[in-house]
Design goal:
Strand content: 15-25%
Shape: globular
Helix content: 25-40%
Low-confidence stretches: 1-24, 151-157
Structural class: alpha+beta
Distance between the termini: 10 Å
Strand order of the largest sheet: 1-2
Order of helices and strands: HEEHHHEEHH
Number of helices: 6
Mean pLDDT: 83
Number of strands: 4
Number of domains: 1
Length: 157
């Protein structure tokens, strides 16, 4: 797992450098290739219905910053366009637990939780279980660490 995170981190580092000044808010995790955020899942769908994420479609794509977000329908795409800060995952879609520990790791869109109206992703189910043990503490530490990325980024764990 650590080798996989390191390989992904190297990709993130290259992406962050390519993003230049647009990366001031932190890099958005888009996987090893391409520019699709949240693994192609509809970021608005986490906040509607039962909170189960819906797979998005390139037919309803919205570019925000240096990433493309896919949505299940035009209504969700319009909601995102009206308020992307509300719907986009925290920490650019990186793992919330890793961010609390001061480094970047990929966020899995199926290991998610909406807390106080904000979407958080975790690396996997095992990491999410750790994060659930102290959500407020991990969010406080993650929020403190996030503004420093990517300038002083640390990758891996």
């Amino acid at each position: 797992m650590k080798h996989m995170m390191t390989a992904l981190a190297l990709s993130l580092s290259a992406t962050s450098l390519a993003m230049g000044s647009a990366a001031l808010a932190g890099p958005v995790y888009t996987g090893l290739q391409g520019d699709v955020a949240v693994g192609g899942y509809d970021a608005v769908s986490y906040f509607t219905g039962d909170g189960t994420p819906a797979k998005g479609s390139a037919e309803f794509a919205v570019r925000h910053g240096n990433a493309v977000y896919h949505f299940a329908n035009a209504e969700n795409a319009a909601k995102f366009q009206a308020d992307p800060a509300h719907y986009a995952p925290q920490y650019g879609g990186h793992c919330a637990w890793a961010m609390a520990r001061g480094y970047l790791a990929p966020g899995d869109p199926l290991q998610s939780r909406v807390v106080d109206g904000k979407l958080y992703l975790n690396f996997n189910a095992e990491v999410k279980a750790k994060w659930l043990q102290d959500i407020p503490g991990f969010i406080a530490r993650g929020d403190k660490n996030w503004p420093g990325f990517p300038d002083d980024a640390k990758f891996g764990g």
